[in-house]
Amino acid sequence: MPSTRTRLAIGLWGPDPPDRALLAKLDCTLLPYFSLIWFLFGVTRASYSSAYISGMKEALGFEGKDYNYMNTAYLVVYAVCQMPGTSLLTVARPKYVFVAANVTWSVLTLITYRMSHAWQVILLNALEGGFSAIAYVGAQFILGSWYKKSELGMRAAVFCVFGQLGTMAGSWIQAGLLATLAGKGGMPAWKWIFIIVSVMTVPVALFGWVFIPDLPAHRAAWYLTDEQKDHAIARLGAVRKQAWDRTVFRRVLLSWQFWLLPFIFMLYSLSIQMLQNNVMAYWMASRGYTTIQQNNYPTGIYATAIVGTIGYAIISDRRQSRWEVSVAIGLTFVVGSAILVSSPATDAGYFVAFYLLGTTFAPQAVWYSWMADVTSHDFQLRAITTGFMNSFDFAFVTWWPLIFYPATDAPHFRKGYIASLVTGALTLPLVGVIAYLEKRDTARGIIGRFPGEDQQGLRGDEQGKPGEDPVNVRATEVDV
Q1: InterPro entries attached here (predicted)?
Q2: Separation CA 111–CA 338 (nearest Å)
């Protein structure tokens, strides 16, 4: 009879001993690195808002819409750099890309404390947007390179939850820094915020330098045995398309995956805008809730987001199907938005709607995993689509709240609630279309990995030697 430790390992990593050994190492290296980086991403972005209201505005002469320009500069460059960033991971070692981006991002945050004019901070934010663009989409891309369909959703969920925790904790961390560091070393507290947040990022970047395993084909992870490196490649199968050639743009632009997955993810982002524009806080203020309650009660949305993200991911992994939980998420969009449109007679109705809609943050894990499932056959298609999903999303969410959730409508955002109801309802037929195309193309053998290809790979120190044949599948392959 297996020991308690063995039963626990089987519960966490499955019954297959080679899979268990590999997953245990990945879950203690790869997953923590990306999760911590995404957590720090949330803390870093929170530092700018905290610094702004804690003295930076006056010290650097922010005027008019300068703060909005700062955020816009960041978001525009962030969105533009996502597709190039994921594409870069197909031709360069991920360890070098991520660590270089992390360190540069940290340095840009650090030198913000030395700035003396608002335009300098705006410029630094634009640069930071470029180097932090790899954080989310790049992590999704690499996670999909190591984990199988039955494993990926849960790992993507853990990664996304750390981002939600970073957003929740960011304000608390900033408040603690402001309280304890004000005046230390003759500097105002807002400057200390940037110093501390920057220093927090460096150890995680160093952890990544040691433990990022690159891609399975690189065979570069020092903590994996040769047998585990072989197994990491063999267990996921081989890709059908992997070359950057003249067919890439035709393959991508004529694929349904490139258009439908980003489109449905965009609809999801528009459906949850009432959760991201202080709508609940505006409503609570109109009902006479205290300032403390206005700050604390909305954090319940992140709690339900964590529960929904992990719960839906576990179900989709165990069933090895994303469409079923996607239908449940789509119905939740409809029900939650419909409650708000109906203008409930009691406060309880609003709380139920907001907290219920919090569970619909789950597509950040489930739908990125679904995208990885249906693009696993084509290396470049998956890289480009991964970046495009978030960039296409940003193209809409940057202006949508200005029309449907302007502060001037507070506390009654009826047109925003109606817009969320419509966009949420549109996800349901799209889920059906994607599920049909996935089933059809899987049956035809068009998508999905297949076993049996030569598993020869290049070790990390063997790439690019003079006289070698051009690297194709195993030097750059990514799998799901």
Answers
A1: MFS, MFS_trans_sf
A2: 47
- Residue 293 in any domain: the answer is yes
In sequence order, what are the residues at sequence separation of 6 or more whose Cβ sits closer than 8 angstroms to the Cβ of residue 364? 156, 160, 163, 309
d(CA 138, CA 157): 15
Categorize the per-residue pLDDT at 478 as very low, low, confident or very high, splitting at 50, 70 and 90.
Answer: very low
Please check whether residues 150 and 103 belong to one and the same domain: yes
- Check whether 466 has a pLDDT greater than 50: no
pLDDT in tens, 362-417: 999 999 999 999 998 888 899 999 999 988 988 898 889 889 988 888 888 999 99
Q: Which residue has the tokens 């930076």?
A: 56
Per-residue pLDDT tens digits for 240-290? 666 777 888 889 999 999 999 999 999 999 999 988 888 898 899 899 988
Number of domains observed in the structure of the chain? 2
Average pLDDT over residues 292-320: 89
Which one, of 197, 202, 187, lies nearest residue 50 by Cα?
197
Q: Mention every residue, 6+ apart, whose C-beta is less than 8 A from residue 124.
A: 108, 111, 112, 115
Cα gap 128→197, rounded to integer Å: 14
Structural domain including 31 reads: 17-239
Q: CA-to-CA distance for 225 and 22, rounded, in angstroms?
A: 9
- Both tokens of 319, joined, read 């069933």
Are 272 and 357 found together in one domain? Answer: yes
| CA 3 centroid distance within chain | 37
Residue 46: other Cβ atoms inside 10 A: 21
Task: Please give the structure tokens belonging to residue 236.
Answer: 């996921």
Q: What is the pLDDT of residues 213-242, one digit of tens each?
A: 999 989 999 999 999 999 998 888 777 666
